[in-house]
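pinned: reference chain
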Amino acid sequence: MGTVNLESAGPVVLDLAAAIIRDKERLSAIDGATGDGDHGVNMAKGFRLAAAKLEALGAFDLAAGLSTLGDTLLGDIGGSMGPLYGTFFTDMAESLAGAERLNRPRCGAMLRAGLDAVQGLGDAKPGDKTLVDVLQPASEAFDAAAGRGESFAACLDALKAAAAEGLEATRGMVARLGRAARLGERSRGHLDAGAASAELLLRTLADGLRARLEDAP
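pinned: its structure tokens
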């Protein structure tokens, strides 16, 4: 079914930072339709700081990389996204404690740990037009594919597809939380910025893990 060596997967966290920095203007433009338009800029600030810390370390595994990213976002990103994504990555890192390899069940547990962290910190539920509308269906799709006995690679593909569908679904939702909620019905017709960054991060994570699968079918 394939597994990923956590030491070789450390650079995936740098991939996450590079993706956010590369797409910061797109993310801010999405945010600008219903919010204050700084989502991409703020996210890029935190991810750039985390990348600098990791590059200074030289070598680090996936757990250490996610932990450093989470701690940096918690300490250096304002608004709601810093605590949400900081806790998301910190709890994902903690789920990997003691592991040397990432297999399909452990990856599913890691994704659920991140989702639980976000839902435990805030009040977001599916349908509220937030990053939960990407994180939850993506995690569930991974677990469902695993339950069908599909390969690790196929589970990651299912994760990506569900994340993309979840993001697009936010376009038809009315925001119930955050700045966009003030717009009420006028928030419909626009993507949610947090959901957009969540989709980008999960897509990049899945691609990075898939590229490092060993003994994949």
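why pinned: Strands lie at 4-5, 101-102. The chain has a mean pLDDT of 92.
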